[in-house]
Amino acid sequence: MLTGKLVTFEGPDGAGKTSALNAIVAKLQPQLGDRLVVTREPGGNQISEAIRKIILDRHNTAMDDRTEALLYAAARRQHIVQTIQPALQNDQLVLCDRYIDSSVAYQGAGRGIGEQAVYDMNQFATAGLTADLTLYFDVDAAVGLNRIQQHRQNEINRLDVEALSFHNRVQAAYLRLLADHPDRIKRVDASQPLDQVVTQALEIMASQLPAYVASKGGEDQ
Ligand SMILES: Nc1ncnc2c1ncn2[C@@H]1O[C@H](COP(=O)(O)OP(=O)(O)O)[C@@H](O)[C@H]1O
Ligand SMILES: [Mg+2]
């Protein structure tokens, strides 16, 4: 039985997913302790991190689009088996930086393989394991790219350097996903200052996952 909960963090590059995730972990760790599992895709274990290096390496300019999509799905499969599923069986709250929506948006729409094709291919990898809650960090692709260029120069990867048109296709696909899955995907206004982004994300988590996250007005605070 998967009694835990999976929360995924999605959105364009530079939306602030990783920054918000770190702040949320700092907030929740004291209450949740070992019940909190923090991980990322592609990665989270030795095999998936090795695949991540291949995918994001800026020297791998010859990589075929479908190869890229398959590598993401392969890393995801290993991540689910080794990390996510055991944590969910153990009643833990899993916070994951990117998941299947990223593949649909980046490979499906960004690369143009087709959103449905990438989704279907990922069903083989996930065997249907869906996030309980997805926080969509909504910011214009151009704003996100600008943040990265200003502050994160040292870790720009193979996908970050794609043209703005690529990132606009990614963003448009995310907005379609948001519209199509209103129960699972909740929008966070990521154009706000980071502390407000974090507050909004925590409020959503508290309302959707009250067994794990206390609301601000709750007695724990
Ligand atoms: N709400 C925000 N406002 C302004 N800058 C931000 C905000 N959130 C994150 N940043 C900055 O933007 C850059 C990208 O943030 P990051 O968390 O790495 O984004 P992501 O993980 O979504 O790609 C970082 O330099 C970060 O400090
Ligand atoms: Mg990040």
UniProtKB/TrEMBL annotation:
<dbReference type="GO" id="GO:0005829">
    <property type="term" value="C:cytosol"/>
</dbReference>
<dbReference type="GO" id="GO:0006235">
    <property type="term" value="P:dTTP biosynthetic process"/>
</dbReference>
<dbReference type="InterPro" id="IPR018095">
    <property type="entry name" value="Thymidylate_kin_CS"/>
</dbReference>
<dbReference type="InterPro" id="IPR039430">
    <property type="entry name" value="Thymidylate_kin-like_dom"/>
</dbReference>
<keyword id="KW-0418">Kinase</keyword>
<keyword id="KW-0808">Transferase</keyword>
<dbReference type="GO" id="GO:0006233">
    <property type="term" value="P:dTDP biosynthetic process"/>
</dbReference>
<dbReference type="GO" id="GO:0005524">
    <property type="term" value="F:ATP binding"/>
</dbReference>
<dbReference type="InterPro" id="IPR018094">
    <property type="entry name" value="Thymidylate_kinase"/>
</dbReference>
<feature type="binding site">
    <location>
        <begin position="11"/>
        <end position="18"/>
    </location>
    <ligand>
        <name>ATP</name>
    </ligand>
</feature>
<comment type="function">
    <text>Phosphorylation of dTMP to form dTDP in both de novo and salvage pathways of dTTP synthesis.</text>
</comment>
<protein>
    <recommendedName>
        <fullName>Thymidylate kinase</fullName>
        <ecNumber>2.7.4.9</ecNumber>
    </recommendedName>
</protein>
<comment type="similarity">
    <text>Belongs to the thymidylate kinase family.</text>
</comment>
<feature type="domain" description="Thymidylate kinase-like">
    <location>
        <begin position="9"/>
        <end position="200"/>
    </location>
</feature>
<dbReference type="Pfam" id="PF02223">
    <property type="entry name" value="Thymidylate_kin"/>
</dbReference>
<dbReference type="GO" id="GO:0004798">
    <property type="term" value="F:dTMP kinase activity"/>
</dbReference>
<dbReference type="InterPro" id="IPR027417">
    <property type="entry name" value="P-loop_NTPase"/>
</dbReference>
<keyword id="KW-0067">ATP-binding</keyword>
<keyword id="KW-0547">Nucleotide-binding</keyword>
<dbReference type="GO" id="GO:0006227">
    <property type="term" value="P:dUDP biosynthetic process"/>
</dbReference>
<keyword id="KW-0545">Nucleotide biosynthesis</keyword>
